[in-house]
Design brief:
Largest sheet: 8 strands, mixed
Strand order of the largest sheet: 3-2-1-4-5-8-7-6
Oligomer: single chain
Order of helices and strands: HHHHHHHHHHHHHEEEHEHEHEEEHHH
Helix content: 40-55%
Strand content: 5-15%
C-alpha cells in the first residue's frame, strides 16, 4: 500500500497526541534551532517510529520522499555559495536513499534511480545529477556534521522499519560506532575506555539535554546550556551548593558568561513539578531511543518501584509539613521523599520516571502514576516493590494491568503462626493461595510464598520472609534484582547538588537531575561496552566519576 494524505495526517496527529514528544523538536527548546542536525535526527526518529506502524506504510523509499524537510534550515551545513541547480532537501533525500541501501559508490545509486523514474520525481528531481555532482555534493558541499546526521538517520529509519516488520534493503548495523577506522580491536585499556566514553557522552548530551528548558524568553545573554553545565558541575563534587559552585564554575568553565547561584536557583524555582517531570520523561525517552538501537538493550522486562528519602531535614518545617513528611523507618526524623521506577534485571538500569511523595498520597496512586510512565517507555513484564507497597489494592491494580508482581508482605498474626509451624517442621519453603479483601465482597487472589533465610540472625519465626506474587513462587528469584535500585539510589544521591532550601520544586529538581545524570552514566556505559567488546555486562566499564567529569566538559552545545 502507498501512503495517502489521510495516512500522513494520521501519523502526525498521533505524534501530536504523544506525551513527552515534540515535533519538530526545535520548537520545544532554545537549545535547538531549525539548522540543528541533532534536531533533524531526533525528528526523523520520532516520525519513523510512528510512520511504519501505520498499515498503509510499507516502503522506506516512500518515507524518504514524504518526510517534511521544508522547516529545516540547511544553510549552515551548505558549503556552497551562490546559486546551485540542486537544493539541499533534494540532496538530503538522495543521500538518505544511498545510505539506506548501503551503496559505497554513486554509480549504484544513479543506476537505481534511472530505472525508477517515478521515484526520481518523488525525490524532487526533474533530471538526476551526474556522478561527479553527486560525489562533490557529499564530500564538498555537505558539512561533516550533516554527513554524519544523514548516516545516523538512515540507520534509524532501517531499524524502525525492521521493528515494524517492513521489508528493508539491508540489515542495519545494531551497534553505534564512535571508533576511528585506524583503531584496532584489542582489549581496551583505561585510556581507550575514557576516549570512547568522551565521544559517546558528547553525542548523548546533544540528544538528552535539549529536553530541558528554563523558558527564560528571548535576548538572554547567558546561554541556557550554561545552566545545565552548572547543574552538572554541582553534581560533580559532593555536597556542593549553588552559590559556592557558581563561584568555582566561573574559573573552571570555558564559557564567557556563567550564571550566578541565586539566578540559577531562581530559574529552577520557576519550574513546576509537572514541568520538571515532563522534561525528565522527554529526556529519558530520548535516551532510550538512542540505546534501543543496540541489540544489547532490552526494551522489555522487570521494573522496580521504590521510595527513597533525602537527607534528614534539620531546619524549620513550618508550612512544609505535607512535603517534609518523615522517614520510612518511622523515626523522629523528617525528610523529603522521592519515588522512582527503574529498569532492573538484564536491562540497563535506567530511572524511567521519578515523582515527589506528599503526605496523604496513597501508595496505589504513586504506583499507578509511575507504571503509566514506565509502560509508555518500555514493555513491562514484572513489577518488584518493597513491603510498604503490600496493599491489596496496589496488587489488584497491577494485576488488572496484566502485569506480574513480587512484593514482600508484612507479617501479621496469621503469617507469624504459619512461620512458627514451618519452623517446627523444619520446612524451608511453603506456598499457599490467599484471597485479600478489597471491600464490597471483592477479593484479590494472590500466592503467599514463605522462604527461610539461610543466614538469619534469629532462631524463631523471624527466620522466614513472606512474599506475595500473582504468578506463583517461580518468579521469586527475580526479587533479588531489586537490590539494584538501592545501589542506584546511592549513586543518584552522589550526583545531587547540596541545598538547605525548603523549596519543594528546587529540591525535586535536584533529585530528578541526579536521576538523569545516573541514567546517562548507565546508558553511556552500555554504549561503550557494546562498542569496545560487542556485548554488555551489568558491571560498569565506565565509572560514575568518569561520566560526571566528562559531562562537565561536554554538556555545552551552544
Amino acid at each position: 500500500m502507498s501512503s495517502t494524505e489521510q495516512s500522513r495526517r494520521d501519523v502526525f496527529r498521533t505524534i501530536a497526541q504523544l506525551q513527552h514528544v515534540e515535533w519538530p523538536v526545535y520548537g520545544s527548546t532554545p537549545l535547538y534551532d531549525r539548522s540543528s542536525v541533532s534536531a533533524l535526527q531526533s525528528d526523523i526518529r520520532t516520525v519513523a517510529r510512528v510512520w511504519f506502524d501505520h498499515d498503509a506504510h510499507e516502503s522506506i523509499a516512500e518515507f524518504i520522499c514524504q518526510y517534511p524537510l521544508k522547516y529545516v534550515d540547511f544553510g549552515p551545513n551548505d558549503e556552497y555559495f551562490g546559486s546551485t541547480r540542486y537544493q539541499m532537501p533534494q540532496l538530503v533525500r538522495l543521500f538518505l536513499l544511498k545510505e539506506i541501501h548501503g551503496w559505497d559508490h554513486e554509480t549504484a545509486l544513479l543506476t537505481f534511480l534511472r530505472q525508477r523514474p517515478a521515484l526520481q520525481r518523488d525525490l524532487g528531481f526533474e533530471s538526476i545529477p551526474n556522478q561527479s555532482t553527486v560525489w562533490r555534493s557529499w564530500h564538498e558541499r555537505f558539512t561533516a556534521d550533516l554527513r554524519e546526521a544523514v548516516q545516523t538517520a538512515a540507520r534509524t529509519i532501517l531499524i524502525k522499519a525492521q521493528n515494524a516488520g517492513i521489508a528493508i534493503p539491508r540489515e542495519p548495523e545494531r551497534k553505534l560506532s564512535y571508533r576511528n577506522d585506524n583503531e584496532d580491536d584489542s582489549v581496551p585499556d583505561d585510556q581507550t575506555v575514557l576516549e570512547r566514553a568522551k565521544k559517546i557522552i558528547d553525542h548523548v548530551s546533544h540528544i538528552v539535554f535539549p529536553a530541558f528548558s528554563l523558558d527564560r524568553g528571548d535576548g538572554c545573554e547567558i546561554h541556557e546550556n550554561a545552566y545545565w553545565d552548572l547543574q552538572t558541575y554541582l553534581g560533580l563534587r559532593e555536597r556542593l551548593a549553588a552559590n559556592e559552585g557558581a563561584r568555582s564554575f566561573i574559573h573552571e568553565s570555558t564559557r564567557d558568561r556563567t550564571p550566578l547561584g541565586h539566578a540559577h536557583r531562581g530559574h529552577i524555582r520557576d519550574l513546576s513539578i509537572r514541568q520538571i517531570r515532563a522534561m525528565y520523561r522527554q529526556a529519558i525517552r530520548r535516551l532510550i531511543d538512542e540505546v534501543t538501537e543496540t541489540e544489547e538493550f532490552f526494551r522489555a522486562g522487570i521494573v522496580a518501584i521504590d521510595i527513597t528519602e533525602d537527607d534528614p531535614f534539620t531546619g524549620d518545617r513550618t508550612d512544609h509539613e505535607d512535603e517534609i513528611i518523615g522517614t520510612k523507618e518511622k523515626t523522629d526524623e523528617y525528610a523529603y521523599q522521592w519515588a522512582t521506577v527503574q529498569l532492573v534485571g538484564n536491562a540497563v538500569p535506567l530511572v524511567l520516571d521519578t515523582r515527589p511523595v506528599r503526605r496523604g498520597e496513597s501508595r496505589e496512586e504513586i504506583v499507578e502514576d509511575l507504571l503509566d510512565s514506565a509502560e509508555g517507555l518500555v514493555h513491562v513484564d514484572n513489577v518488584l516493590m518493597d513491603r510498604e507497597f503490600d496493599s491489596q489494592h496496589v496488587l489488584e491494580m497491577i494485576g488488572q494491568r496484566g502485569l506480574s508482581y513480587v512484593v514482600p508482605k508484612r507479617m501479621q498474626a496469621s503469617e507469624k503462626a504459619q512461620a512458627k509451624r514451618l519452623l517446627q517442621r523444619g520446612q524451608d519453603r511453603y506456598e499457599t493461595d490467599r484471597k485479600l479483601h478489597l471491600g464490597k465482597n471483592e477479593w484479590h487472589e494472590t500466592t503467599l510464598i514463605y522462604r527461610r533465610k539461610d543466614d538469619s540472625e534469629y532462631d524463631d519465626h523471624r527466620q522466614y520472609s513472606v512474599f506475595m506474587s500473582n504468578r506463583g513462587g517461580g518468579f521469586l528469584s527475580e526479587y533479588g534484582y531489586r537490590w539494584e535500585i538501592e545501589s542506584g539510589y546511592r549513586s543518584i544521591k552522589r550526583f545531587m547538588a547540596a541545598t538547605t532550601s525548603t523549596d519543594f520544586g528546587l529540591r525535586f529538581f535536584y533529585f530528578a537531575f541526579a536521576c538523569l545524570l545516573y541514567s546517562i552514566w548507565r546508558a553511556v556505559d552500555l554504549l561503550v561496552q557494546v562498542e569496545l567488546t560487542g556485548e554488555y555486562e551489568r558491571s560498569p566499564m565506565v565509572t560514575a566519576d568518569n561520566t560526571l567529569t566528562l559531562l562537565k566538559k561536554e554538556t555545552g552545545i551552544g
